[in-house]
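Protein modeling request. Please complete all fields; requests missing the sequence field cannot be processed.
Requester role: graduate student
Desired output: 3D structure, token encoding
Chains: 1
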Amino acid sequence: MKLLLPAICLALLVKMPAIGQEIIINESNINDTLVKKVGPNYKHFTHPFMSFGANAMLGESGAELKPGLDYFDFGVRYKYRIAEPLAVGFDLAYSSTTFRLKQTGSKNTPDTALYDAQRMHFHSARLGVYFRINYGKRGNSLGKYVDLGAYGEYLFAHTLFTKITLADGSVARINRSKLKYYQPINYGLQARIGFNKLVLFANYRLSNAFFAPYNFTELPPLIAGVQFVLK
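Delivered output (231 residues):
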């Protein structure tokens, strides 16, 4: 009996370290060593966006415009990071642009008649390419950046709206489509200044809006506004 109690105590002491070393959770840290490639400040990033804008120039005599919120687009943008401060990418978007024509005696676009109101609506599919310069600290976010690039677009629909008050006091609203005086392919330059998910943008059209034989005064080429990153 004198030797039995010490023997039991010794056995317990030997057993306790083995119990303390029992594996409760088995985790692998192999994934921690992988380089993340997808995200706002990683190699690849894709996000939707939405823009609202206006014609930044009110046009020349012959095609003067009324001010208004006349531009909308919605699309998706891809970014590929080349180096820490540099990236390139492209975007695909649908856009809608409206030109509200002033009814003045000098108007010749798209005709010389005067109405109560007249608007030209254009709908397009646009492809843009850009080069991005990042600046400042941003972590895994878009941060601050400047985009410079170019775009091309296909105008797949156009509507000319006119509103006329007739002699009897009634009002006629007319929508005309399938008109052939406008260029279906446009191209130009684009620039953006981004503050994470808020972007200021400007698009400048280099191509003519109309075919030359019609002798229309060209529509203002500059559109500017605000864009929102939706992811």
